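Protein modeling request. Please complete all fields; requests missing the sequence field cannot be processed.
Requester role: graduate student
Desired output: 3D structure, token encoding
Chains: 1
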Amino acid sequence: MLTKIDTLVSMLFLMVLLLAISTPVSAEPQSTACQDDTNVMNYTLNSPFEKNLKHLLDTISSSTPHNEGFYNSSIGNDSNQVYAQALCRGDVTPRVCQKCVENASQEIMEECTSQAAIIWYEKCQIQYSYLMFFSTRQAFTGKYPDWNKKMRTVSDPIPFSAALKSFMKNLSTKAAFDPSKLMFATGNIKFSRTEKIYGLVQCTRDISPSDCSICLDFTLADLEGCCYSREGGTVFNRNCNVRFELYKFFDDSTDNGGKWRIWVAVAVLCVSTFVLAVLIWYCAIHCRKRRKRTQKDEEKSENAFLHDLATPTGVTITQQGDLVGSQELSFMELSTIVAATDNFADSNKLGQGGFGSVFKGVLPNGKEIAVKRLSRKSWQGLEEFKNEVILIAKLQHRNLVRLVGCGIEGEEKLLVYEYMPNKSLDMFIFDSEKRSQLDWEMCHNIINGIARGLLYLHEDSRLKIIHRDMKPSNVLLDHEMVAKISDFGMARIFCENQNTANTRRVVGTYGYMAPEYAMEGLFSVKSDVFSFGVILLEIVSGKKNSGFHLTGQAQTLLAYAWRLWNEDRELEIIDPLLTESCPMVEVVRCIHIALLCVQEDPADRPTMSSVVVLLGSESLTLPEPRQPAFSVGRVVQIDQPSSTDASVNQLTISSISAR
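Delivered output (659 residues):
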């Protein structure tokens, strides 16, 4: 016979199952975008910015359900000010809305440690930024959830596509000019004798009806590109979302089925209260056992972390748990590193990153080092630390920064690099005074150095590695101005026959990210090639891709370069400081190669082995480049609609043309 506790557990299982069936809420995020502005580093752990963000997300979670599923607010002052906004799908109940927003608030804090981010769930979305974005239509190329790829192709796509296009356009008009001001619409249309198309469109309610209409037009263009021949499709956007299926996926409370579901929801709420009481009682009995198991698990987790570091680098662990270095990697005493940096003195601080600070140090033998000190409570940074140790200890190349060693003691986790006296590339090419110290020969050597470093990562090292965060600030310069690629915390290893990979957590720096990575999480060696092309254009022009619209010449550096190329005026993009020292034929060839690297289709971009060959030979004929990807998934403010250009602000870049 079952004991009383077994009976209660069985009842609990059945009730939870009923709850799950009656009120489905997707507990998984469909897409996340974390965005950093390297010029503004106001998000660090335990900073005022982070505390303001946590407080604001708590407010958003409690307030959104009571404001018809939409709420925005801000908190803080100056550089610590945070703006946040939440939107629930218009057909969900307040309880489902609150639960979804709570999940999204927790997940966005775990996934992102950046100045701006957005996360989409099936039934809600949250976004925050250090910049004011309310009541502003933001252009953002659509995000596609994984379920889009699982949809089958319809049997007769041409008439289906025509019917769907007309239907979704009518829904968009209905939502944009909704008399209730909720900017939400659902409906269905009969496609055949037995089939219906069900659709849903929605906008955030801080924008005007006309801006809602424009946003939906662009988002439907994305939907048409991905899904109009499929049995369903979804596109998430910052200001609007669209979805269609061949089954009813939304709640229409005006029909009998909708009323029945409301009664079910009420019943489930009562049952869930009882379930919660049983859970509390059951968990209390086993609380002590769990505490003991947790302590043991933490010890196992720490040992596992040390073994993860040791195994791939040939490092051994003594019986006392100490790490002993090999020829590939040296483990250094904390006291040695503390003495070298003068106890991490502010006067030795070289920079501040999202996961910690970097300090200059001098070892007893006089060797200069740079020490990255991981923030003690950063678990995301811990993964970056482990990733960098495992990767960079295996890599040795003239154009990669060398990891001298690392230190792990208590809560301190430190990475020790060779010191780069000339710091990073961005400090030269974007600084008017230091820029004058660079002649074309130096620039050309730096370009070749970056290309050779990437070629080594992609093809010549023991591991096939995708960097994923190539940008000028991650290119360091030694005393001879030799370029060395650094910061492998975001890098990923590919198997020998692997060409692409997919991630739901997009990391990196917008403005340098390939569009397929920024929009769909797809990355490959061609993602790094795109980033290299952007860097090459920035070196030649002395201008940043992000913020280029402030020059008044074009919305993005890529758009400007493409326009000049088509008008045979490419010499105008060259920085005047380089014109006296550069052979024009060589510079124009570099511009040509850069445009090949930033083409929208990854298949059209050259490999880094081809880039190195093309940079070193003036006789090889270059193919004509195709239009570059102006859109890399960035937030922008748009004053006037346009069909061709992209807009940029300090944070991001985006396309407002249909793909």
